[in-house]
Structure formats: structure tokens, C-alpha cells
Amino acid sequence: MPYRSGFVSLIGRTNVGKSTLLNRLLGEKFSIVSDKPQTTRNRIQGILTRDEGQAVFLDTPGLHSARTQLGQRMNQFATSALDDIDLILFVTTADSSKVGSGDQRILSQLEQSKHPRFLVLNKCDLVTLEHRERLRDQFYSLHSWAGYYPISAQYGEGVTELSDAVFQALPEGPQFYPEEMIVDHPERFLAAEIIREKVLLLTRDEVPHGVAVVVERFSEEDVRSGDSTLIRIEATIYVDRESPKRILIGAKGAMLKQIGTLARQDIEKLLDRRVYLELWVKVRHDWRNNEASLREFGYRK
Fold first, then answer.
1. Residue 232 to residues 162, 169, 267: CA-CA distances in angstroms?
2. In the Cβ-directed half-sphere of 181, how many Cα atoms lie within 13 Å?
3. DSSP state for residue 150 in the 8-state scheme
4. What angle do CA 280, 67, 113 make, to 5 degrees?
5. Whether the Cβ atoms of residue 68 and residue 110 lie closer than 8 Å to each other
6. Which of 1, 160, 212, 293 fits a 20 to 30 Å CA distance from 277?
7. pLDDT tens across 261-299, in order?
């Protein structure tokens, strides 16, 4: 059996479940998940290695109408994921009555790509078979597809079939990454993403997307009692106004403590190590429209 490998881009609107799907495909949680739109801000590569090959999945920010420089940067990350790849997974949701304008805009961009495309209809657990087939037919009337896969990324339904189809569609090629490698980002990046996820989870709509997390310190330290070590992480949560800062800190620091507790637990699971996490909150006014701040916070062109 030939060894197959290649790069697979997950493309779609915001909040359609691309990050949840990536985590399900990898069997691990490496991509931030939230029910808020525009959660993913960078292009994250998740690596799935099987006996027959290796698939490198690119989880991209959802394409949207950008109102800030950060939004424009996110769209650039997403559209650049259409270059130098082998397969496109167009992810959309089954709980829509028809193909919306956002999906149609993305489909028009996909027309410029010569790579094979799979239609991945997520959240099929929320609708009837008749409904999702009707929606599938609408997509087929607008675009040509190399395959159609109804799934539920949240519950894993149909994901195995999708994964198998991905490997069958990849070309013959080499192994790009070591077998044990699952994500291409450093641990401090993943720690920052987990902290940001907890901010979105606990503050809901009270704190907008003007939140960035910068890990100032990520070091390994000896524990005095025994030979074990722990990871010391110091991170700053930046917001663009004073009012979100007060919300994030909370009464007597209660909200910030809760964010830190949940983030620490997830980071310890990820690293399989004890973690000491210390958080601060600072204001950087209108940072999403400031080039210097965007670069400092990791959103480079």
C-alpha cells in the first residue's frame, strides 16, 4: 500500500465547528473551541499520522466581514490556507434553511482553487435526514464536490468516515513530521489559547473579542519536595477598554481566579505536568487596529 501524505485546509464561516472537528480528528484538544464566532485567530496545523500516511490539517479563522485590522489579518490567514494544499474541507452547518450569503461568498473563492473539495455538513444531529439532504442538493447545485460527508463533530458521528476519505484522497508522499507530533505550535502558544478560551467561556457576551493573551514566562522549575518539576506560566490578558478589565478581574478577583483555575487544569492535561499559573489583566486601547500591538500579540502578516 503506498504511503499518502498532504495538507488539508478546513475552510468555512465563523462558528461552524472547524476547531471542534479538528480536535475530533486528532483525538486530542489542541484548537480553541467556543460558541462565539471568530474564536480561532491563527492558522493551526494539526497532524494526524496513521499507518497508511500522514494528514496535516490547517484549522483556519472563519471568513467574515472584517471591521478591524485584526479581522483583516484573520481573513488573510484563512485565504492563504488555500495555497499549497492537497485537499479542502468546506465545513458548514446543517441547521440552516438554505445556503446563506456567507457560504456563497466562500464558494466563489473556492472556484479559484483547483484542489479537490469535500462538502462537510456539520451538526447533522440537530436536523432530520430529509432536511440535510435538501441542503446538500442546494450546495451541489452551486458547486462541484469530490465528496459529501454529513457529520456531528461534537459527538463524533461520521468523523471516522471523513478521516478515511481524507487519507484516500491524499497523494503519495513522504512523512512530513515525526510520528509522535500532533500540533506544530509551541506549548506556550497552546497555553495562551487555553487561557483565552476560558475567558470567552466564563465571560460570555460581557467581554467582546478585544481580548489577547500573551505568555510572558514559560519555564520549568524544580519542586522542593522530591525530584519532580512543574511548569511556571505567567500570562497577561489584554483588553481594549477599562470595563472588560473590571469584568475579567471580578469582585475581589473572583473571575480571574476562576479563569486561572480552569485554564491551569486544561494546561496540566495537555502537558501532563503540574502547572503554576499566574494571570494579570491590562488595557491596551484599540489594539486590534494597531499594527505594533498586532505584531506583539502574535498576529503577524
1. 39, 43, 11
2. 16
3. E
4. 110
5. no
6. 293
7. 999 999 998 888 899 999 999 998 888 787 887 777 766
The answer to whether 178 and 239 have CB atoms below 8 angstroms apart is: no
Homologous superfamily in CATH for domain 187-296: K homology (KH) domain (3.30.300.20)
* CATH number assigned to the domain with residue range 4-169, chosen from the 4 options 3.30.1330.30, 1.10.10.10, 3.40.50.300, 3.20.20.70: 3.40.50.300
C-alpha cell, 246: 473590571
Counting other chains too, the contacts that 67-71 makes at CB distance below 8 Å and 24 or more residues apart are 68/288, 68/289, 69/288, 69/289, 69/290, 69/291, 69/294, 70/41, 70/288, 70/289, 70/294, 70/299, 71/38, 71/288
The answer to whether 47 touches 182, Cβ cutoff 8 Å, is yes
pLDDT digits (tens, 9 = 90+) for 127-183: 999 999 999 999 999 999 999 999 999 999 999 999 999 999 999 999 988 888 887
